[in-house]
Design goal:
Largest sheet: 5 strands, antiparallel
Radius of gyration: 20 Å
Distance between the termini: 61 Å
Structural class: mainly beta
Shape: globular
Order of helices and strands: HEEEEEEEE
Strand order of the largest sheet: 6-5-4-7-8
Number of strands: 8
Number of domains: 1
Number of helices: 1
Length: about 150
């Protein structure tokens, strides 16, 4: 039976709670990307020699020419604020005591959405250079949260 076909004997609805479990995997490119953050405190990307594009976060194939990407590059220590917004509520809809600044930080030809810290809103501007602040090496777990935030570069 395909996804578009329906079993006529299937229940119309499910009453009560349905236990759902899943396991997210980073994939091959994500594994190396997050391992570099955890083990080395640096951000890697992959570069397409055909299109001259550096993907951050890293990917295995170029989205333009579909070439396999085997060249890993350090995305550098400096990113640029491309855009930003303020968060007034947490993930559960509870009001935050102070708004958080979240930005798209351009690294290579891509970038990361992450928190900004050590900056006041009236000092913030598009194009500001920022650098990642990593957790201490012993506290890193291999997730994007190993980067505490990005802060302005003097």
């Amino acid at each position: 039976m395909t996804l578009l076909e329906r079993d006529p004997n299937a229940p119309v609805f499910w009453k009560g709670n349905m236990p759902v479990t899943s396991r997210y995997t980073f994939g091959l490119a994500g594994e190396r990307f997050f391992r570099a953050i955890k083990d080395e405190g640096r951000i890697l990307g992959t570069r397409c020699p055909e299109c001259d594009i550096t993907y951050v976060p890293a990917t295995l194939f170029c989205e333009r020419c579909m070439a396999e990407l085997t060249e890993w590059v350090d995305a550098g220590e400096i990113g640029e604020v491309h855009t930003y917004t303020l968060l007034f509520e947490d993930m559960d809809g509870n009001r935050l005591p102070e708004p958080e600044i979240v930005a798209f930080v351009r690294l290579g030809d891509g970038g990361l959405v992450h928190r900004l810290g050590e900056v006041e809103l009236d000092e913030l501007y598009i194009g500001m250079n920022v650098e990642p602040v990593f957790k201490p090496a012993a506290e890193r777990t291999g997730s994007i949260l190993d980067i505490l935030y990005f802060r302005p570069v003097d």
